[in-house]
Amino acid sequence: MIRSVSRKLLFGGSSFRCNRLASTLAFVETNKEGSIVPSSLNALNAARGFNNDLVVVILGSNASKAASKLKSSIKCENLKKILVSTDEQFDNYLPEKVGPLLVNLLKDKEFTHFVTASSAVGKNVLPRIGALLDLQPICDITKIVDSKTFVRPIYAGNVISTVECTQAQKLIGIRASAFDPIAEGSSDTAVIEDIATVEGDSSSLQIEWENANLTESERPELSSASKVVAGGRALKDKATFEKLLTPLADVLHAGIGATRAAVDSGFCDNSLQIGQTGRVVAPDLYIAIGISGAIQHLAGMKDSKVIVAINNDPDAPIFKVADFGLQGDIYEIVPELTKKLEKL
Ligand SMILES: Cc1cc2nc3c(=O)[nH]c(=O)nc-3n(C[C@H](O)[C@H](O)[C@H](O)COP(=O)(O)OP(=O)(O)OC[C@H]3O[C@@H](n4cnc5c(N)ncnc54)[C@H](O)[C@@H]3O)c2cc1C
């Protein structure tokens, strides 16, 4: 059961006051080193667009460090407060732990909007908050029309819907690739405040974080990489996938992605899958190698700024979305392209 707490408990001894003006609460994620996750910077830019007072909440053992970093690294005139809780129960952002705290913040009707990135964490947390507050969240927003009207893709990107939200509080998830990151600079007037944990809410939950089994890589993170080299079924096997794609990705300092066919065939880890049931990316440059361009794959990459497709089938659908198409054998074109780029 969610126990409501008085504002005094929630905000400790601080003097947080509800000014009854519209304001936005933005949830910012950090990685385990305490750096702000890039998609949160895009979400902050979207949140800033509401043009009302912005309050950021950062949770987990690194929250204080991250709050200071955020304050000194982004330029946001309407950023008024950064609320932090360094309680380690929030590390890893288990929604069962994070949800009750955010719900208590949102019970303050001062907040007309709650904004998070539609990241794995955001997608985990948002529905829980929606259920606890009996509000309908709106996910994967690609455009904010006004304070209650949002654009989001549905049916794997085949339909772009514009939705109007009549709820007093709007819970929204931002598709990070559709928004620029917030401008760099500093937000000197923002105040950093500690918030107390909501006692009793999560300690009774029979859920604990065990461990994370993540693929460590020196490469740029796929969702935020400015260049992505992606391979499909034509790569034949894991060894060929790596042999052909890695040198090209190295020379371009690009992230590596794949189609579901490539993932299902065991060419690479499933964290590299791009598409409807994988990651959504929108890099400056996307090179599709031996990828047919199935609608489910396009759903994850068609917003890339420049798309280059290499395929031996002139009728491959990928050419319809490509800015540059190279028709031919990937086993000839990719090594040649890599060699030429290495010489630049
Ligand atoms: C519910 C659902 C969800 C899905 N989600 C996703 C998703 O998230 N992401 C995703 O990618 N897919 C997804 N799929 C699968 C999707 O429908 C396609 O099957 C998949 O994207 C095809 O991958 P591919 O392009 O690698 O393979 P193929 O469609 O087999 O294409 C291979 C391409 O390589 C070309 N080729 C072959 N040899 C060479 C060569 N030597 N030189 C040059 N070109 C060559 C061929 O001409 C062909 O165009 C989903 C499907 C369903 C039903």
From TrEMBL:
Molecular function GO labels: electron transfer activity; flavin adenine dinucleotide binding
One of the Pfam families matching this protein, by short name: ETF_alpha
Any single GO BP term: fatty acid beta-oxidation using acyl-CoA dehydrogenase
Cofactor note: Binds 1 FAD per dimer.
Signal peptide start and end residues: none
All copies of domain Electron transfer flavoprotein alpha/beta-subunit N-terminal, residue ranges: 24-207
Top-level taxon in the UniProt lineage: Eukaryota
PROSITE patterns hit by this protein: ETF_ALPHA
Keywords: Electron transport, FAD, Flavoprotein, Mitochondrion, Transport
InterPro entries: DHS-like_NAD/FAD-binding_dom, ETF_a/b_N, ETF_a/FixB, ETF_alpha_N, ETF_asu_C, ETF_asu_C_CS, Rossmann-like_a/b/a_fold
Cofactor: FAD
CC annotations in GO: mitochondrial matrix
Record's subcellular location: Mitochondrion matrix
Subunit structure: Heterodimer of an alpha and a beta subunit.
Protein family membership: Belongs to the ETF alpha-subunit/FixB family.
Its job: The electron transfer flavoprotein serves as a specific electron acceptor for several dehydrogenases, including five acyl-CoA dehydrogenases, glutaryl-CoA and sarcosine dehydrogenase. It transfers the electrons to the main mitochondrial respiratory chain via ETF-ubiquinone oxidoreductase (ETF dehydrogenase).
Annotated protein name in UniProt: Probable electron transfer flavoprotein subunit alpha
